[in-house]
Each structure stands twice: as C-alpha cells, then as structure tokens.
Design a protein that fits this description.
Shape: flat
Number of domains: 1
Family: Belongs to the PhoU family.
Organism: Secundilactobacillus kimchicus JCM 15530
Strand content: under 5%
CATH topology: Methane Monooxygenase Hydroxylase, Chain G, domain 1
CATH superfamily: Phosphate transport system protein phou homolog 2, domain 2
Subcellular location: Cytoplasm
Oligomer: single chain
Function: Plays a role in the regulation of phosphate uptake.
Protein name: Phosphate-specific transport system accessory protein PhoU
Length: 231
C-alpha cells in the first residue's frame, strides 16, 4: 500500500478511526443513560447520531474522490473500498446506540433490576474494548490482532445469553419487572448486534491486508463455543 500512503489516504483512514472512536463513546453514553434513566443524556446520543451519519457520508465522498482522482492500483483500490464498506458497519453501530437511547426515553419509572444493570454495563465495556482493539488492528493492517479481536465476540454472545437467563428468572419471580425485562433484553440484543458489526470490521481488516475474505463470527458458526463459556 506504499503508493497510497498519501495525505489523502491518511486523512481517509484517520477519519474512519475517529468515527469509530465517536461511535464507541456513543455506546458508552447510551448504556449509562439507560441504566440511570438519564433522558437528557439519551437525547444527546440521539442527536449525535446525525453527526455519525454525516461522517459516514463524508467518508464515502472522500473514498470516491480518492478512487476517481488517484486511480489506485489493485491493492490500493481494495484498501479504499474496504474503508467505504466498513464505514457502513460503524454507521449501523451508531444506529443501535440510538435505539438504546430511544428505550431510555420511552421508559418511565419502571423498576430496575440491579444485577442486570451491572451485567449490561459489563457487556457494554466488553463491546467497547473489542472495538478499541479492532480499530487498532484496522489502522495497522494487523491480521493477527484482528483475529484475536474477533474472538472477543464470543464473550459478548455469552453475556447476552446470561442476561437473557437473568431476565427470565427475574420476571418469573416478580411480574412487575416484565416491562423492564423487555427493555433490558432489547438493549442486550442491540449490544450483541454491535459486537457482530465489530466482527465485520475485523473481517474487513483481513481483506484489506491480504485480499482474503474470511468469516470470523465464531458464535454464529460454532454455537457450542458460546455454550462452553456458559458451563
């Protein structure tokens, strides 16, 4: 990719990483707002999604201009296309953070389940850690780190299953928490989906570096691996 180490490509790559960091912050804010029922903070996340959408459009514009003006060779073309495609995963992650925030706005005084709140916060932190490792791998074309980061999704899948079990038990014990359980389950599911998008980014890193198209979502390919973590 030496021919593409230009100011234009560096700007494109850095813009992608910056967008990823912004999305990570949105996820953190969305979960904290959900747990504390902070509707103001949730609205801030919802508003920030417009910025994420604009960033995605800007990335697309920069990528298309780079391809049109620089006429990159095969490897360089692949690198630009990878960023173009991966930015859509970041945008979807931002959309999921917004959906979590809308749940916060929708909830109104429902009783909380402290153990589930703790589990959601831990799950969110796992997602953010995975995204941090993934962006670092993407920025350096580190295939080994990308594969390692993708494996972290197994922990996120397992966290989702644990939360689902917790919510089922809580609802059986106290029917008044059923509305809360439904929202908590949706939020956990959204975090799990965010993890899947992060896996896609690691697949993109490997494609960008090697041209190889791989499937790294082990939880989907081998569900038994998730079950092993639960035992």
């Amino acid at each position: 990719m030496k021919s593409l180490f230009s100011d234009e490509f560096h700007h494109l790559q850095q813009s992608f990483v910056d967008m990823g960091k912004d999305v990570s912050r949105q996820i953190q804010m969305a979960i904290e707002a959900f747990i504390t029922h902070d509707k103001s903070a949730a609205q801030s996340v919802i508003s920030a999604d417009q910025t994420t959408n604009h960033d995605s459009i800007d990335l697309e514009r920069m990528a298309l201009e780079l391809m049109a003006l620089k006429q990159p060779v095969a490897n360089d073309f692949r690198a630009v296309i990878t960023i173009l495609k991966a930015s859509s995963d970041l945008e979807r992650m931002g959309d999921h953070a917004t959906s979590i925030s809308w749940e916060t706005v929708r909830l109104n005084g429902h009783p909380q389940i402290p153990t589930v709140n703790t589990a959601l916060k831990d799950m969110s932190q796992q997602v953010q850690n995975m995204l941090t490792e993934t962006l670092a791998a993407f920025n350096t074309d580190d295939v080994v780190k990308a594969r390692q980061a993708a494996k972290l999704d197994l922990q996120i899948d397992a966290a989702y299953v644990r939360i689902r079990h917790q919510l089922t038990a809580a609802a059986k014990q106290d029917a008044s928490v059923i509305p809360t359980s439904e929202s908590d389950l949706l939020v956990a599911r959204l975090l799990e989906r965010i993890g899947d998008h992060v896996v896609n980014l690691n697949e993109a890193t490997i494609y960008q570096a090697t041209g190889e198209m791989v499937e790294l979502n082990l939880g989907k390919r081998q569900p038994g691996l998730v079950q092993d973590l639960l035992n």
